[in-house]
Automatic annotation (TrEMBL):
ATP binds at residues 216-220, 375-379, 405-410. The keyword Protein biosynthesis does not apply. Residues 213-446 form the Phosphagen kinase C-terminal domain. This is arginine kinase. One of its GO terms (biological process) is phosphocreatine biosynthetic process. It comes from the Eukaryota. Its EC number is 2.7.3.3. Keywords: ATP-binding, Coiled coil, Kinase, Nucleotide-binding, Transferase. Gene3D superfamilies: ATP:guanido phosphotransferase, N-terminal domain, Glutamine synthetase/guanido kinase, catalytic domain. GO terms for molecular function: arginine kinase activity; ATP binding; creatine kinase activity. Residues 104-186 form the Phosphagen kinase N-terminal domain.
Length: 448
């Protein structure tokens, strides 16, 4: 039996079928009307495709509509962000009663003691005896033990767990603070912190003149104004007073190298904020869980801002982690220049009075930032030392030089000085210089 051959439709038949489809679905009518309107348009549009698209979908938004809608969405997002900030500020103004504080601190202390893996210095030094002696004490600005240890009570993985509520907390809660500070800053005996001494900057040099290892360097100095308490106790009004006091001192600078502009955080557009955060000019979003639990970000973004000179190699961050942090940066490794700039900016705002302690040096909200408060940080590429097979050698070097390392990946590390109590500024800088040279020498030796 012969099979039947199925005849394929001709091209004309396909066209007829498609034409019927367009007519039955209304496409032909819509296109015809759109083309007629284009034909009748006295001044032909520059973009006929966009014109026809608009005629085909009269309810569809055009580019202008989309931009308008996006603008409204952006405004709503800003309003939501502002509302959240306002709510947070309102909540922060509600003071806890004495009975609430007592209940919270007793409950949280028992939880801290019972936690098996937490090994913070707070847990180690807040003994039962210490706790009973200190829990009812207050500083002269009503800073409680809870105000100082709330971060550590809520974060068992803290390394310290304490953030000072005010300058007097260092003395009122000395029974806790002293042991923690001696341990963390490796202080032996009842020694006094030396007077500030920036010394001769010519003792410092370019740490990597051939630019083979170090990509950038920055030095950070933190300061707390003498007459104000720290973040956990500040109101919106006090945050803004601190900001204004520091702003006035900064904008008075007329030295060509250091004069610049001040920007209140809320005045910086979102796109600009994002750009400045990415390049390190601006402080990051307030997300650190340890600082958040310490109420460091209280009343955010009120009273926060940034000063930067015209070259953007000198900056000041206001009310971020401390009342003010002065920062000097360089895309290279010239320690001398970065050090000199930082010394100069401190001199130029000499009218500001900072909190200082006979034993601990300059005081701070963050107990890590006391003493001469100096943190020198370099971004360095050490691909050989960073190998697993050299990890013991690297760790030994870091420990011997009092340098802390943060792995950035791909052989890059951020290396930071850690010794700042019991040393002058120039001593910290010299020690760091010596340590970095040793690390770079060790890296070079691994190439041989």
């Amino acid at each position: 039996m012969e099979g039947h051959t199925v005849k394929s439709p001709s091209l004309e038949e396909k066209r007829q079928e498609f034409r019927k489809y367009l007519e039955s679905t209304g496409v032909t009518e819509k296109l015809t009307n759109a083309l007629m309107k284009l034909y009748q348009h006295e001044t032909k549009p520059e973009d006929p495709i966009a014109y026809i698209r608009k005629q085909l979908c009269e309810d569809c938004p055009d580019v202008e509509k989309v931009v308008e809608m996006q603008t409204k969405i952006d405004e709503l997002v800003k309003e939501k962000k502002q509302a959240a900030a306002d709510i947070a500020i309102t909540k922060s103004q509600v003071k806890k009663t004495a009975s609430e504080i007592d209940l919270i601190i007793n409950t949280k202390y028992q939880e801290l003691k019972a936690h098996e893996t937490g090994n913070s210095l707070l847990k180690e030094y807040l003994t039962d005896d210490n706790f009973e002696k200190l829990k009812a004490l207050k500083t002269d600005v009503n800073g409680t033990l809870l105000d100082n240890i709330q971060s550590g009570l809520n974060n068992f993985d803290s390394d310290i767990g304490i953030f000072a509520s005010d300058k007097n907390a260092y003395d009122v809660f000395d029974g806790l603070f002293a042991g923690v500070l001696e341990d963390f800053h490796e202080i032996e005996g009842d020694t006094k912190h030396p007077e500030s001494k920036w010394g001769d900057s010519h003792e410092l040099e370019d740490l990597d003149p051939e630019s083979n290892f170090i990509k950038s360097i920055r030095i950070v100095i933190g300061r707390a104004l003498k007459e104000f308490e720290y973040m956990p106790l500040l109101t919106v009004e006090k945050f803004e007073k601190i900001e204004e006091k520091i702003r006035k001192a900064l904008i008075k600078i007329d030295d060509e190298e250091y004069k610049g502009t001040y920007h209140t955080l809320s005045s910086i557009e979102d796109d600009e904020q994002k750009k400045w955060i990415e390049d390190g000019t601006l402080f990051p979003e307030p997300e650190d869980k340890f600082l958040k639990a310490a109420e460091t970000f209280r009343c955010w973004p009120k009273g926060r801002g940034i000063f930067k000179n015209e070259k953007n190699n000198v900056r000041a961050w206001i009310n971020v982690e401390e009342h003010v942090q002065f920062i000097s940066v360089d895309e290279g490794a010239n320690l001398q220049k970065v050090y000199e700039r930082l010394n100069k900016i401190i001199e130029l705002v000499g009218e500001l009075e900072f909190a200082k302690h006979e034993r601990w040096g300059y005081l701070a909200h963050n107990l890590k930032n006391i003493g001469n408060t100096m943190r020198i940080i370099v971004k360095v590429k050490i691909p050989k030392l960073s190998l697993e097979e050299n990890s013991n050698k690297f760790e030994t070097l870091l420990e011997a030089t009092h340098i802390k390392a943060k792995n950035l990946g791909s052989g890059y590390y951020e290396l930071m000085s850690t010794k700042r109590v019991g040393l002058t500024e120039i001593e910290t800088a010299r020690d760091f210089q010596k340590g970095i040279k040793e690390i770079i020498t060790a890296e070079k030796c691994l190439y041989l």
